[in-house]
Write a structure and sequence with these properties.
single chain; about 400 residues; alpha/beta; Outer Surface Protein A, domain 3; TIM Barrel; 2 domains; 9-stranded mixed beta sheet
């Protein structure tokens, strides 16, 4: 590998942050958040150097660091980037394009990924809905959403996850997705109820990373117990229609004591339909806060073997942050307000966390109350862990 040249492919781009970076390929519908050290190596790779030259260059810049450690870090990062489809190794120098965006704002934290609650309306009443979705909520016009996301794209947003509520109750959801898929890496979460042949065909014509359908079990009993009789059948019908149209699929399950023993069966169900499985552990937020304690897993780690959900990649060591908002990953409510994640505005209001803000014309994330309050709360939690007051973070940083 020492004599090979890393060459970026698939239109790979990087949005640098003061504490991390987003690497993404719109063409490949792939993105990852890497820690700050990765930027050092990404910059060297862009210079069209051979692997051994990258190691020598970084070693010269950081003479106090072990050269063997630097070589190991380079090997690990290159293997990861190659596996994810961001680069290839060549026997001769390539011509890497400029991969860095917003180089004039490297010292600013930018919003790079957003979880959009496009509507709070939902046709179901799931027992553990964290959003406490219902019916009768107002919605923003699609033109307003487009105006907002045009602005956010210009400021650094590259990844958009659309959810609700149930997003397919939003009247112009297909129009919005048609717009968004041209600018962002887009995925959408749904309970599947409104996915019919026409909708599946429309989605198949879009450049989507994934359509994620909620399904808690490979048979109807457990799923319907929490989400309503007949909902499993509608979700499976949607999954099969989408699979038949070749739409990239992800199945999302909420893990409880009722379905944990069936997660392998659910994973087999997903793989038979060329779908990933994402498993979220039931937490006492939203409606789930009032559920009986017997539904919650005593050891949430037991589900990690089943979930294929990607997260921030600490390829070259640990990140010091305890909240996704510090990395430029935020939530946007159905009102068009920004918040640290997809927990409800009411959740933060109840904890007197001054983090829910409107996105006005001159708004910038760096220096905003959303980011500064998240940083302060995170520092508090890091201090508690350092002092031994808590062993690890097991709830939202605004609850400490």
């Amino acid at each position: 590998m020492d004599s090979q040249y890393p060459v970026f492919v698939n239109g790979t781009r990087v949005v640098p942050q003061p504490n991390s970076c987003l690497i993404y390929s719109w063409l490949a519908s792939t993105f990852d958040i890497l820690n700050l050290e990765s930027l050092i190596f990404l910059n060297e790779i862009q210079r069209n150097l051979a692997t051994r030259e990258i190691i020598e260059s970084v070693s010269a810049r950081y003479p106090d660091e072990s050269k063997d450690l630097i070589a190991s870090d380079v090997d690990r990062l290159l293997a990861f980037l190659q596996e994810r489809g961001y680069l290839e190794l060549s026997s001769s120098p390539g011509a890497n394009d400029e991969i860095f965006e917003f180089v004039d704002r490297m010292d600013e934290v930018k919003v790079v990924q957003a979880d959009l609650e496009i509507t709070k309306n939902c046709n179901l009443r799931c027992a553990y809905c964290f959003d406490e979705a219902a019916a009768g909520y107002p919605v923003l016009a699609v033109g307003k959403w487009i105006e907002l996301f045009d602005s956010l794209h210009g400021a650094g947003l590259r990844v958009l996850k659309v959810s609700g509520g149930e997003p397919f109750t939003y009247p112009a959801i297909l129009e919005f997705l048609e717009y968004a898929q041209e600018k962002f890496i887009v995925s959408i979460n749904t309970n599947g109820h409104y996915v019919d042949e026409r909708v599946a065909a429309r989605l198949a014509g879009m450049h989507l990373q994934a359509v994620q359908v909620s399904l808690d079990s490979a048979t109807s009993h457990v799923h319907d117990l929490f989400r309503g009789v007949g909902t499993w059948e509608r979700a499976v019908r949607a999954i099969d229609l989408l699979h038949g149209q070749g739409v990239p699929l992800r199945i999302s399950a909420t893990a409880t004591t009722r379905n944990v023993d069936g997660l392998q069966q659910l994973r087999d169900f997903a793989h038979a339909r060329d779908a990933e499985l994402s498993v979220e552990v039931l937490k006492p937020v939203g409606k789930a806060a009032s559920m009986d304690a017997t539904h919650f897993l005593a050891d949430p780690q037991v589900v990690t073997q089943y979930s294929e959900k990607a997260s921030a990649h600490k390829v070259l060591g640990e990140m010091a942050m305890t909240c996704q908002a510090q990395l430029g990953v935020v939530g946007i409510s159905y009102k068009g307000n920004i918040k640290p994640c997809n927990l409800t505005e009411e959740f933060f209001d109840d904890r007197r966390a001054d983090v829910v803000k409107s996105l006005d014309e001159d708004w910038r994330y760096d220096g905003s109350a959303t980011l500064s309050a998240s940083n302060a709360a995170s520092e508090r939690v890091v201090g508690l862990m350092a002092s031994g007051a808590i062993e690890s973070k097991d709830k939202c940083i605004f609850e400490y």
